[in-house]
Amino acid sequence: MSPSGHLRVGVLASGAGTNLQALIDGVHGTDGIELVCVGTDKPDAPALERAAAAAIPTRVFVRDDFPARDARDEAISAWLRESGVQLVVLAGYMQLLSTGFTDAWAGRLVNVHPSLLPAFPGIRAIEQALDYGVKVFGVTVHLVDDGVDTGQILAQRAIDLPSARTVAEVHIFLRPLEHALLCDVVRRYARGTVRPDPDHPRRMLIGDPPLPS
């Protein structure tokens, strides 16, 4: 994706922006990676303050300002293109995206989800896992398609939490995993080492290719 070693990243966020902050602290301005814009659907999202503190341009796309979801998503997509974005990261963006948007950014649109997909997709993933009684929790960074957390998996990390009882307790342990994994995937995009596995239609390879024998 980025043979020149430079990667322009756009971020969409709806809430506190902790994953955005992880990207600002962990990859922005390093290894040729630049966060060039942050968009949100919430005018009061704390993510806007985080972006402003890092001098990253922002824009708000309130759903009610557009006649339909497709129109809003096209406006977001146009803004990302105007900003020269090469990779879009969903960092706690809570709006469903239209098929037109996911198709336009296919292979360049990533999300972080607080479960080991395909287990517990959608909202309240940690709550689902607790209700099921799992002992191992985790996070997934995946490509986004037109399904609900059904895109190809890029990376996953797990942690044993056999005594976990509450969502807040699990979040404490998962947040560092989310932050580290998301930053690692963005770095690999910048290096140009994210690619499909020619032998498996669902598998994505994100490491350096093997050396020729």
From TrEMBL:
<comment type="similarity">
    <text>Belongs to the GART family.</text>
</comment>
<feature type="domain" description="Formyl transferase N-terminal">
    <location>
        <begin position="8"/>
        <end position="186"/>
    </location>
</feature>
<comment type="pathway">
    <text>Purine metabolism; IMP biosynthesis via de novo pathway; N(2)-formyl-N(1)-(5-phospho-D-ribosyl)glycinamide from N(1)-(5-phospho-D-ribosyl)glycinamide (10-formyl THF route): step 1/1.</text>
</comment>
<feature type="binding site">
    <location>
        <begin position="17"/>
        <end position="19"/>
    </location>
    <ligand>
        <name>N(1)-(5-phospho-beta-D-ribosyl)glycinamide</name>
    </ligand>
</feature>
<dbReference type="GO" id="GO:0006189">
    <property type="term" value="P:'de novo' IMP biosynthetic process"/>
</dbReference>
<keyword id="KW-0808">Transferase</keyword>
<feature type="active site" description="Proton donor">
    <location>
        <position position="113"/>
    </location>
</feature>
<dbReference type="InterPro" id="IPR036477">
    <property type="entry name" value="Formyl_transf_N_sf"/>
</dbReference>
<feature type="binding site">
    <location>
        <position position="69"/>
    </location>
    <ligand>
        <name>(6R)-10-formyltetrahydrofolate</name>
    </ligand>
</feature>
<feature type="binding site">
    <location>
        <position position="111"/>
    </location>
    <ligand>
        <name>(6R)-10-formyltetrahydrofolate</name>
    </ligand>
</feature>
<dbReference type="Pfam" id="PF00551">
    <property type="entry name" value="Formyl_trans_N"/>
</dbReference>
<dbReference type="InterPro" id="IPR001555">
    <property type="entry name" value="GART_AS"/>
</dbReference>
<comment type="function">
    <text>Catalyzes the transfer of a formyl group from 10-formyltetrahydrofolate to 5-phospho-ribosyl-glycinamide (GAR), producing 5-phospho-ribosyl-N-formylglycinamide (FGAR) and tetrahydrofolate.</text>
</comment>
<keyword id="KW-0658">Purine biosynthesis</keyword>
<dbReference type="InterPro" id="IPR002376">
    <property type="entry name" value="Formyl_transf_N"/>
</dbReference>
<feature type="site" description="Raises pKa of active site His">
    <location>
        <position position="149"/>
    </location>
</feature>
<protein>
    <recommendedName>
        <fullName>Phosphoribosylglycinamide formyltransferase</fullName>
        <ecNumber>2.1.2.2</ecNumber>
    </recommendedName>
</protein>
<dbReference type="GO" id="GO:0004644">
    <property type="term" value="F:phosphoribosylglycinamide formyltransferase activity"/>
</dbReference>
<dbReference type="InterPro" id="IPR004607">
    <property type="entry name" value="GART"/>
</dbReference>
<dbReference type="GO" id="GO:0005829">
    <property type="term" value="C:cytosol"/>
</dbReference>
